[in-house]
Amino acid sequence: MKIALIAHDKKKNEIIELAKKYKDVLEGNELYATGTTGTLIMGETGLSIHRMKSGPLGGDQQIGAMLAMGELDLIIFLRDPLTAQPHEPDVSALLRLGDVQKIPLATNMGSATIMLEALKNKTFLV
User: Fold this and answer.
1) Is residue 60 flagged as an active site residue?
2) In 3D, which of 34, 28, 67 has the Cα closest to residue 47?
3) I need a labelling partner for 97 at 20 to 30 A (CA). Which of 6, 45, 62, 71 fits?
4) 107: nearest Cα among 1, 2, 18
5) How many helices (DSSP H) and strands (DSSP E) are in the chain?
């Protein structure tokens, strides 16, 4: 399964903790991430991750292109809903593409945990 991991700056610690907790689940999949998020997760977990550019520098669009081409199965994008993002149009486009392509997309720890638990229990089917 191909999984994208993205987190806004104020959510980086949360996605690192999520990756640590579910390392055994994630390591059996092909992982992609925006630049800074991927670097941080790799440093803390040792997981192998294909890194894109930083989100504001086009990483969200790179993930979006993969999504549009049907190259992703799941996206975990921990968003910071209380901070204005300079690349908000890219974020909105990514969310819209997830809906259009019918790809599961978690935007907070609750939904991300549910999805990773389903992967862990082998009840998540693509």
Assistant:
1) yes
2) 28
3) 45
4) 18
5) 6, 5
The one catalytic residue in 24, 60, 90, 99 is 60
CB within 8 A of 2, min separation 6: which ones? 29, 30, 31, 32, 66, 71, 72, 73, 74
- The single-letter DSSP state of residue 108 is S
68-98 residue pLDDT tens: 999 999 999 999 876 767 667 777 888 899 9
How does pLDDT run across 98-108, given as a tens digit for each residue?
Answer: 999 999 999 99
Total residues found in the chain within this entry = 126
Entry pTM: 0.92
- Give the separation between CA 31 and CA 3, rounded to whole angstroms: 5
Tokens of 43: 């440093």
